[in-house]
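Milestone 3.1: sequence recovery, worked example.
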């Protein structure tokens, strides 16, 4: 029984540390998003659009669970900020597709990866060679154990 409690306590400690690490890694990216001053629904719309090759207003409304008129207003405001654009669907000229703008695609490709990895690069730069090896070894061991059946 005591062995199981020790393992549970250790697992909880590892979980807390991993959560704290993930939070510290995400801080620069979240700060950048906050500077974008998007409302919650605008962030949700951008998230859905970034993950797609464009959507109709009807599809986006369904994905967000919001009315057509509400989503239309969200898209209008995002379009004014050059974050999205409306394009006629090539296959069906009656449909308009909403896509993230080239500016957003460039940002996702060029800036986001650097923001995501920057805290790790900085931390690794402060570690000595032995600490770096220990970090990599420990993480590889944990991953291997988690992946094994």
């Amino acid at each position: 029984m005591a062995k199981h409690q020790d393992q549970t306590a250790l697992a909880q400690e590892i979980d807390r540390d991993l959560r704290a690490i993930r939070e510290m890694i995400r801080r620069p990216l979240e700060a950048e998003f906050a500077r974008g001053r998007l409302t919650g629904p605008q962030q949700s719309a951008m998230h859905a659009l970034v993950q797609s090759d464009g959507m109709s207003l009807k599809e986006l409304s369904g994905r967000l669970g919001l009315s057509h008129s509400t989503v239309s207003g969200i898209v209008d405001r995002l379009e004014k900020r050059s974050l999205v654009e409306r394009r006629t669907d090539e296959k069906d000229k009656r449909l308009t597709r909403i896509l993230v703008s080239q500016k957003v695609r460039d940002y996702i490709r060029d800036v986001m990866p650097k923001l995501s990895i920057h805290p790790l690069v900085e931390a690794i730069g402060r570690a000595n060679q032995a600490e770096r090896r220990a970090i990599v070894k420990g993480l590889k061991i944990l991953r291997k154990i988690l992946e094994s059946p």
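Helices lie at 2-35, 40-50, 57-64, 68-80, 102-110, 112-126, 129-147. The chain has a mean pLDDT of 91.
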